[in-house]
Specification:
- This protein is α/β, with parallel strands linked by helices.
- The protein has a single domain, classed as Aldolase class I (TIM Barrel, Alpha-Beta Barrel).
- The chain is built from nine helices and eight strands.
- An eight-stranded parallel beta barrel has the order 1-2-3-4-5-6-7-8, surrounded by seven helices.
- Strand 1, helix 1 and strand 2 form a beta-alpha-beta unit.
- Helix 1 packs parallel to helix 2 and helix 1 packs parallel to helix 9.
- The chain is globular, with a radius of gyration of 16 Å.
Length: 211
């Protein structure tokens, strides 16, 4: 995979309104999101497939990476660039067997550097840590600290993603501590102007915005 996970990593909210969801994803991409993860825990399979397929096409048109949360099968079905695995979503080796070596596999590592080391050994393409701050999306999530990012940046040779309660006010500290990407849900997609909000996040990185 030639493109690396970096910059603004937009994680979609739950929504049965596909038109509104796709519009917000398009706005995030126009604002500079480099990665979009489709995350839907409660929708029916047919709706998840339809939404994921639309977002996959949209990401391709913006030259952005498209990742599917949890489901290796859905990622393969819609031609996603990869899959993101939590602790209950199977392992890297099994996902690689299904997706092949041309796809990205990301792993949630929460507050656990040992899990990140193991993911790297198993062939993961990036690791994610968090929640760093209180999050409405996952209010009971384990909390991670900035020191964990510093350790990961020095020990892990993969891109490191920070997630959880990230806003304009705290994102810069995460980037300074070693985060290659910041994953954002509500602060981005609940904004009155999603494109403008994405642009503000993207400016925190010294990388060009999507054209």
């Amino acid at each position: 995979m030639s493109k690396r996970v970096n910059g603004l990593y937009a994680v979609t909210p739950e929504s049965v309104d596909s038109i509104a969801l796709i519009g917000k994803v398009d706005a995030a991409l126009r604002g500079g999101a480099h990665v979009v993860q489709y995350r839907s825990k409660s929708a029916e399979d047919s709706l998840r497939h339809a939404q994921a397929a639309q977002i996959a096409r949209l990401c391709r048109s913006h030259n952005a990476l498209f990742i599917v949360n949890d489901s290796v099968e859905l990622a393969r079905a819609v031609g996603a660039d990869g899959v993101h695995l939590g602790k209950d979503d199977g392992d890297v080796v099994a996902a690689r067997a299904v997706l092949g070596h041309g796809k990205l596999i990301g792993v949630s590592c929460y507050d656990d550097i040992v899990r990140a080391r193991a993911a790297q050994l198993q062939g993961a393409d990036y690791v994610a840590f968090g929640s760093f701050f209180p999050s409405a999306t996952k209010p009971m999530a384990q909390r991670a600290g900035l020191d964990l990012l510093r350790i990961a940046a020095s020990e892990i040779s993969l891109p490191v993603v920070a997630i959880g309660g990230i806003s304009e006010d705290n994102a810069a500290a995460l980037i300074a501590a070693g985060a290659d990407a910041i994953a954002v849900v509500s602060t981005l997609f609940d904004a009155p102007d999603v494109e403008a909000q994405a642009r503000r996040f993207a400016r925190l990185f010294s990388i060009p915005l999507n054209s």
